[in-house]
Batch of 2 targets.
Target 1
Amino acid sequence: MSMRSETKMVPTRPVGIVPERDLDHCPVLEASHLGIEFGGLHAVDDFNLVIGKTEIAGLIGPNGAGKTTVFNLLTKVYQPTMGTILLNGRDTAGMNTIQVNQHGIARTFQNIRLFNNMSVEDNVRIGLHNQIKYGMFSGIFRLPTFWKNEKRQHEKAPDLLSILNRQDMADVPAGSLPYGAQRRLEIIRALATNPSLLLLDEPAAGMNPHETEELMQNIVKIRDQFQIAVLLIEHDMNLVMGICEGICVLNFGKIIAKGTAAEIQSNPTVIEAYLGKRKEG
Amino acid sequence: MVSFLTYLVNGISLGSVYAIIALGYTMVYGIAKMLNFAHGDVIMIGGYMAYCAAMYMKLPVIVCVLFAMVICTLLGILIERFAYKPLRMATSLAVLITAIGMSYLLQNAALLIWGSTPKSFPQLFNFGSMKLFDGEMIIPGTSVLTIAANIVIMLLLTWFTGKTKMGKAMRAVSEDKGAAELMGINVNQTISTTFAIGSALAAVAGILLCSSYPNLMPTTGSMPGIKAFTAAVFGGIGSIPGAMIGGILLGIIEILGKAYVSQELGDAFVFAVLIVVLLVKPTGLLGKKIHEKV
Amino acid sequence: MKKISKTTKSNFITYALVIVAFIFCQIWLKGVIPGFKMGKALRGQMVPICVYIVMAISLNLVVGISGELSLGHAGFMSVGAFTGAVASAWLLGAFAMENEILRLIIAMLMGGCIAAIAGVIIGVPVLRLRGDYLAIVTLAFGEIIKNVMNCMYFSLDGGRLYVAFNDPSLPGKMLIDGPKGTKGVSTIASFGMGFALIIVTLIVVLNLINSRSGRAIMAIRDNRIAAESVGLNITKYKMMAFVTSSAICGMAGALYGLNYSSVVATKFNFNTSILVLVFVVLGGIGNIRGSIIAAALLTILPELLREFADYRMLVYAIVLILVMLATNNPKLRLLIDNIVGKIKGGKHSAKEADKA
């Protein structure tokens, strides 16, 4: 194991991973000694990661390394059996998926999970659910709060859709969108929940090089515009090496390397475990 | 004490009937992932068939039973072929409604053929009864027969699904239809066979039920059908030993509940226990836990 | 924005349909046009038709919008029917409320409230389960309600209400007599009130669907895990749909109970739940207008088949199976989709031309 930062117990900020501009801010995420056991199997073990306030970070590793499990732990789809997660400095112990989302983590899914029978705009409105609130009775009896808030939602949804150039599709059922558009809609829906950390699970899967290029620009654009952090799982090394400031490599549930793109590319452990086999990068 | 034991035996006997019906439900659910609501009515048809064979054709008992089983098997295969098979790809709700339609169809056909007045089911089995504790406790012969039949059926089914080629094919299809097909298993034939077996069991259950409660009506099958379905869920739907345990427990609870709690609330008691079990163990006593992959 | 959204237009058609049908039925009922007067058998069906339409809409809220199969909705109808019958008799006996319309409204509201409470009690455990298990537990609750109602005794003696469980010895005039059901109910239900209830139900359900809460309910139906990931409170919204539905069922039940001088608890059995479910499925799951049409047609159908007397339920069963087979036949479906697509496509291009 070559990475010195691995041995440190306290979630300090390893230089070269959190971008310098974020050093003055509380990191958006500090996971320390995070782990989960499924019937004796350590699917994820001793996972430590710090993500700066406006960092784009990548989580890579061979298939079955436990990357999606990490996402499921961070969003509390699975309750971690050990370790702590600090979200904007606040401990998330005892929170469920819903509370974690309300405290700032939004995600997309590897196998797309849209609300297929609802329109694109309604999918975004669901994302805005906890931003723009009114009660059931205002809704049923069409009280003034209903009209006011519906109007706000109706105005905000196209704004969000326009970030990824989707505003023309507002009335189409989400399930009938082409694959790439569905992935983008999932990102917009996640953004609508006003997160401080956006988790993207293989956002470029199934996209052609041109679409991937556009996606890379969009991820950077989202980060710049919303001033949020992004953690992404991706197999497309061009994307990962191109936009991720810090990269974390996972194998068999354990972190085997952390660093910048250049560091990861030259790391012998990583090459042996992962890149070497695939003759990439 | 003696009365308690009598109730217990009655409960096990009734529960054995539920268990045999529940086996049909659970096998069909396991393999076709559908709630075959018409199953309870196949029981009723089985009862009527045995009744006709015994009363009009004056056939010997064993032939009556076989006759009912053959007719019900054919009926089961026909129902599957014409009503359920075209819906293999449809939503489960569509299949459920079709099954309900089939249940109405069988009930009303029976109503037209045999009328609404209850038929008194003939005493097919004259074994006399067992007397225990100096004659204080009487166990009717039919109860003993029912329990014995249940044990035999259970053992046969366990052997069948575990050891035979068709049984293994059934398990494979219930696990993963697509993969089974790729392995060269004839899925349609396997599902047909499952319906055939379930319906044959329903005929047996119908005869046993009517032997203990000799009131045969077009609606005879519906309540035992619902309860047996409950029993299948109670034990963990899809599981053969689960159906057996669920059925027997349900029978015992029903008889004891009616005896000691309240005659009117016996059924409510059964369903209340079901609810409690499902809340503690959401997939039934022996059901497998299902994880949704994220 | 000037554009009227598709849903608004669709809802408008639904309201218009109900209002037109009501006016038509009133003309038919009153015999305004000579020689065109409704027969007695059908006249007796007018309130039940309204009740079943409301039941179908409310069940569609649970099955279609919230995506949970309930097989016990007759239970809520039963609670409403018995509450309504008791409430009406009590209002008359204890408060001398002679106004029938007011009494009917209050009885229906009380039926709705008690059914909503039953909905909460049942919803809390039931909604923790999923799929077929949820269905079987709703079935179980439906049967339990039926059995419990069979053991309820209510009586009115000098303006005082007496209640007993499994004990028929109550003083005064019996209102509910255990297995014999409600007794001597003054039948104050009317077609007009049935119509009003349909409209109220439509307002509640359609407005709920097209609001923040309704969208949350549908999102949970479409993808539970994604809904959780965007911070929707699953239990809250599932409960909202379930309890709203049970309250509406209770109101429909109260109207039903006050339409007959006597109703027994076993009327609200599993078969009644299934009957309503059939309306919902045939009308199209999640399609409110479809539920209304299916409920109305299928309630009249057995009446129209009355000349076939014994065969009518058999025919009903066969029709049901054939409709299910036809609507789920992929080839036929494709054909229908194509035709619908063409009609809609035609309209669309016309609109485009208008804009230009």
Target 2
Amino acid sequence: MTQALVHQKYKLAVVSGGKPVLPRVSNRSSSSKTVTCLTHDKANYIVPFNNQIKIYSIETRQCVKTIKFANNETLSKIFHSNEVMVSHISLGDLSDPEDEKYDKITVITNIGDIVVLNYKGKLIEEPKTWKFNELEVDEEVLKVFRNKDQVNVLTSKNKFSPSCSYELYQYSEKKLTSIKSYSNVVISCWSLNEQFLCVLSKDQEKKKTLYVDSIFGDNFHRSFPLPLSGNASGSSNTHFVNVMALDNSCMNLAIGFASGVINVINLEDLSSRILKWHIDSVLSLCFTSDGSYLLSGGWEKVLSFWQLSTNMQQFLPRLNGVIVDVDVVEDKYYSLSLQLAENQTNCDYQLLLLNSSDLTSRLCINGPLCVFRTMVKDVIQPMSAVNSKLSTSSNNLHKLRKKQQRKLLKRKRQDFTCNMEINPLSKHLYFPHISAVQVYDFYKNEQVSYQYLASGINNSMGKVRLELNLRDPMISEVKFTKDGKWMITSEIEYPPEDLLSSNDLVYVLKFWTMNSNSEWTLKTKVINPHGVHAPITEILMAPRVINNSYGCLTADNNGGLKYWSFNNVTKSWSLTRVSLPNVNHFSNSVALAWSLDGSLIFHAFDEKVSVLDFNTFSKLDNDSPSILNEITLDSAVQSLILVNDRNLIIATQTTLNSVNLLSYKVENSFDLYPFVNGVYKNGDLSRLISYDESSGRVALVVNQLPQGEKGKPALQYSSSVVVFDSDLTTKLGIFQHDEYISCIRWNYDTDFIFVDIQCRLGVVSTTTSTEMLDELNREGALDALQSNEFEAQLKKLSGGQRERDHAMGEIGEEDAVFEFINGDNSDKLINMNSFTSMFENIDNVQMDTLFDRVMRVIT
Amino acid sequence: MPSVSQPFRLTVLPKIASLNNFATQTSYLQVADTLTPLTNKINIGISGSAVSQYIVNPTPKLVYNLPIPSTNTVSSCDVAELAAKTEGEDPQEVWCYALVANKVFSLNTLIKPSVATASTSNFGETFENNKVDIKYKAVNVKVYPKRETIVAVLENGLIQTFDFQLKLLHSIDATYGEIFLVQHFTSESGLDFVCMLSELKDKKSCFKLFEVNELTAAIPVKELNSVIIEDCPLKDAKLFYQYGKIYRLCDAEIKVYNLPHFQLAQTINLPFISSNDVISFKAISTNRALLTAQNKIYLLDLLHNATLSERELSHVKTFQLLRTAVIPGNTSDNDKTFAIGVSTKHGANPVSTLDIINVDVGTGTLRDSMGKGFSPRGGKPHTLKSLLSPDNETETEEFDYSRIVEELEKVGSDSTRFDSVFFNKLNVKKDYYTDSDRFLNNEDFLEKVVGVIFDNFVSEYPRALTYLLTHPLFPLSHTKNLLKRFKEHPRLFKQAIVTCPNLPLDDLLHELFTVMNDELSLDLSLRILQDFNRDFIKSSIKKMSKVDTHNFINFVVDENADEERNRNKPRLFQLLSLVLDSVGLFALEDSTLIKLSSFIDDQVRVVQQNIELLNLLEDSTVARSSAGSQFNSSQTEEQVIKPYSVQYLDC
């Protein structure tokens, strides 16, 4: 009975996270990537995310409104897949130009859906929505231009092919009429005031021609061949136009090449001048609205201002990422789109809103930054002059996407897990992000901080060209002591490639503590803690009873185990105990578990789990036959969890087992083989298993790639979260999610938090489910291990009584009484006999006792 | 490790029927609640006989005896030592005991010098003795030496405070009679408390907590908490208080209540005791308790529900605990505590003795409890269940294990029929373990099947055994002496070495030093290095009684063209060095030593040659490059040294 009750109490919801999207980033032919917008009063900034639209107040730098797609039926229908993106956000109601309420925006998606949303107050239940019906199958809305009452729509076809075709429509009375079309478009740009459009197209003979036209009306035409900069014999980068910009008066056209050169062409006389500063490909260009400055950005992580009248140059350096888009917003702000390109497994965008007068940052917007085990689908890397892991070059541009898709479909290993840890003290989520760690507040849904934990080139400047092949140090693991005051990280440093020493990775273990500025400061650093070439495969924090949890175990891939602890005298961490490795057996399937009372360590290595005594730091003596010091499983162990000091949950590549340590019997086992075998890298399954240390519940994520239509697999994952009780006898719930879940963790409360490959954060939550009787019992029994609750209560009782003695006869005793009436009421029913016992010996009883008796019966 | 030792005798009890009757003896023997692990003196009120003091060390001995009339029973007894008031004065002891004689109830005190040494005995001496009659039986007395008071709890629920001259100082009514448990304890902050449990009507009980204060306080004994709990009969229950918890054993079920609010925290079933047993149940350490049932003593961990230690006293019929020295159990003196009990022999006219058992309570951690749990779990063999709902799955298999074992047993020694049953019933497709056999994961079943094979087949084994040797869950219990068994079956022998998990190192080493076959030697060597770490291998070789390393050394040193062996040479050397380290060079025969040294010389020569060749090569290349530089220095320099590459922006 109780189980059914609990079953309903858990629920799964996607509540926060998400990442800002650059809707046009997948369309190579568009120079402008970002779609953002200021609200009517210019005080708020509207940013589309992959799961919602967020509105930030520029004044307070806080998110003031979110429009979540999932919360509205119409919106969730429109944004049904992650292929659908916001192509344009237009202020006001597009269908009703007379609307003067200034609280609406019109959102147009790339597949031609239009929806009118109110951004003030509660979102209306059924927003007004219609569709551009004239669009062909492959045709996507690229941009909507507005000039007073006129609305023109630019669409593109075949956006993934080397050259696509554009169509410009006039929109009136909910109908599109084509007015112009461009074919073989390589790249395009439009002026900020949306008056002029420039298109570069390449004909059959690979001759490139530029067309500049006015968008509204028919008053400006110009076409001329692309002027080639420099000598004709240069590499392909010198011809490859990566980005263009057109100024408002249609006087100047700036062309950025993959080689790093910017060519500014005066459209009056077609004279051109060359601006050289960028070392690698120019990624973004924009004129200010008066045309006096040209803004450019690229791999250097430096925003460059070119004063066109003087050729003087100014810089804004040390930005967080590669500048993939620059925009001028209403003259007052510069909007930058940065890509944190060092993460090659995902597109991590950060939107930066700068004040144009003093260049101070007004807003900095990004989602959780996850580093997945392998690259997820639809990752678009910026163009560079060279081809590297972090970038695409002009040569392999069009092959890449198809190759990636094919690879994803064919591969059996679908390991997109990522690492996430939750700090027990602040409850913030920690995402290791290459050489930094991102701290994310789940409840506020904002980044708290981003701190570099390892020194790499990327920390202060961007990498260009061949530097892109240098790998930054990578944070592989982040852990916290049980009180959340110490952070332990392990990182991997990569030597340069193509050297004899290229495989000599350096492993570093670092111990951090929080300083008063709420920044982590390094206290102890250990280089190659397990010897040269030996990686750290697992870190496990000590339970509270061991040195107040200021200790941790590290394991290598060779069966070795080390215990590090904080020394209160020297105020540093040091190696305290060692268990030697086996030199001839290597495996990355390593897992650790530690009993709550600190006495035993379970060390899984390959398919064996050995039981170690912590005090001797060696295997248990095998003297008596009843004590096993080794458990053999059917395949390599992926994850170990010790629940309530009683059940050892062992996940192998094929099965999930619960072993009762008191009887040494496998009590329950489940078949993981169809979901796990070969899918995850060794050890990564532990990211998908978590357990609630207070109630002993275990949550397991199963990711699946269902068969698409016609038996063909589509790249659309689904996942299930299974919540078990402490010994796996009952499933408390199975919950579905529509995307691949990368990591799940217990939030040190009653819930599990997960992150999916869309960087969305979800929660498997329960409100108050610990009413199940047996669970309560177990909890109470184990609590006694840690705290001396009894003494405290006794003191309170004794003190409370004393106080009451003083306050005899006064009103206000109830509080003191209530404090200790919190008794066990589990198996009690009130019936007509319940109160009879109260009246026995009534004449001699204290008032308190009588009151107590009443409370006992009724509570 | 936690253990219960064999009891030793303190004294033989007088031949009084009630003292030898196991149903009543515990209430007729009152041991003062003064035991700590270091206590040497034990005070016992023996009804109808005497109130006696014994010392335990160096040998159990009676040191003081205070005879009481044979009609009197001792209902409770306590002793406390008074601090010496002036220096040089002998410390004094206060004895307090309550007597019952034909519905006449009395409270008695005795103040005598406490003598530390066992040699002086003071029989016959008389000391200050007080007596006062009370209206009801005193179920518990407690001496507070510092305050010089005695707190007595009477049967009807009165809590009375006396001074040492037995003058009534204070009395408070706890309102309920039928008291079953009275326990005095001191909190960490130094306050004294007394809690009591009394039974009401209809299976209801009342828990009360009192604070014992200084006499000068307004209320010397004051009620702090009172809890009435239903369905908690005390009459047939065994109760004790320990570290903020009350344990109640009733009908083979222990209920644990958290104080001070008396909340039920845990229910533990004890499957190993039956209701007819003579049971006693006492505290011993945090979360641990001693339990006796008939003549068996159990040390239980009530947190992990495990039997830490168990002892059967075969020479007696029953053993019952009277008093224990309770220790926290997390310090180093876990092994020093003890308990006093009364044992009764078999027979119509049995003799009872007071016995002491020493107890090591262990650490109370999971380490002590591992594998010793007593809670029986569902008898159904576990099967591999599907993770999501069944219709989501492609394959699940369930086997009726017990029936298959029965069928296999019936087959007898016909290996083909055995194989057909085995492979068909278990749906095994291949001769070796594959992932689709993961449903065959019941260890008990595998153990039984291997057992059946070893029982029924002697010379020729069925194919099923080969399959089982490849199974990763091959039962551990059969791995010992497995290799010896396969001596005559080279195929199975090799299969076992290569795939069978959990082979013991001793067996492997034994085979390694005896096997003459090179191929098997190599397999054995690799297996040993794969499974065990160096220290363990070394210590195991050292432990072996007779090591003949001759074979093995020959095998490693032997020049051989076998590719596999050459590839694994470094590992073989590793093992060789481990073997030599553990047996010592001087244990080798001369011929072996000579062989070994010549082998090493050979190896060193090869290394030397290599180094020379390398030097030669290096010399020649350096010479050539330097020679070249003389002619065309600028060009070669540019080729050799190229620390930077400069790329120009091409435009």
